[in-house]
Here is the input.
Amino acid sequence: MLYHLEGLRFAYGSTPVLKGISTEITAGEFIAFVGPNGAGKSTLLRILAGLLRGYEGSIDFSGRAIGAYTPRELAQRIAFVPQETHVVFPFSVGEIIMMGRLPHRHNSLFESPRDRERAHQAMQLTDTESLAGKAFNQLSGGERQRVVLASALAQDPDVLLLDEPTVYLDLKHQLQFYDIVERLNADRGMTIVSVTHDVNLAARYARRMIAIRDGQFVADGPPAEVLTPGNLYDIFEIHATVFQRPDGRGAYIVPLG
Amino acid sequence: MRPSSSVPTAGAPTSSLSDKGALSVSRFVTVVGLCVAIFVLVVLIAPWIGASGISMRGVIEGAYPDRDIFLITRMPRVLFGALVGGALAVSGVLFQAILRNSLATPFTLGISSGSSFGAVVAIWLGLDLVIFGVPVVSMAAFGGAFLTILFVFFVARSNTGLPTFTLLLAGVTLNLIFGALILFIHYAANFQQSYMMTRWMMGSLYDATDFRPVLQTAPFVLAAFVGMIWLSPQLNPLTAGEEWAASRGVNVERVKKLSYFAASILTGSVTAFSGPIGFVGLIVPHTLRLIAGPDHRLLIPGSFFLGGAFLVICDTLARTIIAPTEIPVGVVTALLGGPFFIFLLKRRPGDLW
Here is the structure.
């Protein structure tokens, strides 16, 4: 059992965002949170990452309350990829990726050979080796997200949390990004939790889909079971037709309005 | 610290690709060593330059006035200038990192107006004394800076941490309030006091006529400097955002608080004696970033030595350009720094980080 959530509640000031969530996440799962804007998906993801505290209820990570870990301990096991990354100074791609090694460096000013090796592996997995010398700020959106993913992988994590990582990418780069993530899940057993608006993308890659609305789970299961016209109306308030993909990899939806 | 373990690999013919992004020991030594070399050279040469010529032979043999000019007039001032320049440059690096803005300076958050206010009040009250070897005006300036630091900190602090935007607004607002109070005291003061106040706020190293300012500020400056070298790896991810840094294991609030107080101590302690000297904290980090890149492990030590050299050069110019009259060094830093800054911006269009 990787995560155990029990009666999780969270509010921004007096506005409740998560209204009692209980679930379990097992190592090696590929989960997608789907749901409308403001449903609480990103908030939940940040709590899973240990970035957001001040919740009610309990959340255990590897059998221990997540709040009992130091930021460094969590960063050694959990990596987080945001929608977008802006770096104010002209760091190179290599430097950005190497920052992922920080949780593994204990008060050392310099990177160890192991740090270099891990960063190099992360570059290979994400096909970013050729970018290493470039300035991060001069990359295209698709390249940037691959580099941020590489930086997350350099952390050598068990869990990869993705917050709408492909929302600003074109179709090709969306698929390219998730192909890498899928390989990490399949080949290395890395646990993936992704937040997305894109139901079809989620259905294509995730093996468990959790629909969130108004801070509560409204459906939880394999994408094919979650994506029914009735559920889609409950989640998004849209009428949609659900089709089977021609390649046999689950379902896709066409909103009707 | 275990830097020694990576020494053999730094020069070894390992895959060059895996070196990308890592800071090798040899690169660190090259960049920081170069800055130290410039610093040492400037500090060794500057005391020999001045309005009245002195000979090396005269100084060594103890001839009057050569030795007195060297030891009493020039050396303390050069060393103090080096300390002030180094402190302001490192302070600039730190504020730029925690505010995520390359245009932040040591004075952005109101420290200069706070210390000026302290100094102006002391001058107005006629506290032109020295207690335990420390001028009361300097004590008041340090006190003013310290209260400002705390005030801005507690205004900006919220239960979610230390929000950058609130920090900036609190600092800028306090700048305005102190500005008004300083104007009022100016108005109420007599001519002589008013002159002293203006003179103090121009920023100069004129008052460093013995080694006491150096000895009294060096412990603060060196402690903050060394502490921040130790913290420097954690400042790098902060420039990609606080959440980004936090997800890489950085205790963001702790790093921000430590950096804020270190930067404040660096600026507050030297400004208490020199008055506010602008542009050092902007121009030095910027230049080093262009040359050596944005890694704070290089920027913090490098800026200290480069900043010290820069201010000593400026002060040497201030002492000699229209000798025997002196120009406040703050005027020189602005006149040199401003155009240089514009030159840098024009040379690298679109890179206004």
Observations:
- Chain B has one domain: 39-347.
